[in-house]
Amino acid sequence: MWFLVIGLVAGWLAGKVVKGGGFGLIGDLVVGVAGSYIGGYLFRFLNLNINGTIGEIVMATVGAIALLWVIRKVMK
């Protein structure tokens, strides 16, 4: 359940950073959860370690921002 909360927060933050209409509650949740996986891979690839809830939110948000950037490039 905590994973979904972090995904929702990350999706919402990513939507605010990237700007745009957003994808609604469910869309932001999906983007945030998928972004947390992408962020995890990115952080491991760069050998960056995170700790705590704030670190997890940052990692998931970075991944969600990358995912939103790709989605918006593909949609254009």
Topology:
Elements: H1 2-18, H2 24-45, H3 52-75
Notes on the structure:
The protein has one domain. It is 83% helix and 0% strand. The chain is built from three helices and no strands. It has helices at 2-18, 24-45, 52-75. α1 packs across α2 and α1 (2-18) packs across α3 (52-75). The chain is globular, with a radius of gyration of 12 Å. It starts with a helix and ends with a helix. The model has no long low-confidence stretch (mean pLDDT 85).
In short:
The protein is mainly α. The chain is built from three helices and no strands. Helix 1 (2-18) crosses helix 3.
Average pLDDT: 85
**How many β-strands, per DSSP?**
0
Number of domains: 1
Beta-strand portion reads: under 5%
What is the tally of helical segments?
A: 3
| Biggest sheet statistics | none
Order of helices and strands: HHH
Oligomerization? single chain
Separation, N- and C-terminal Cα atoms: 34 Å
Query: Judging from the principal axes of the Cα atoms, what is the shape?
Result: globular
Identify low-pLDDT runs. none
Rg is 12 Å
Structural class of the secondary elements?
A: mainly alpha
Helical fraction? over 70%
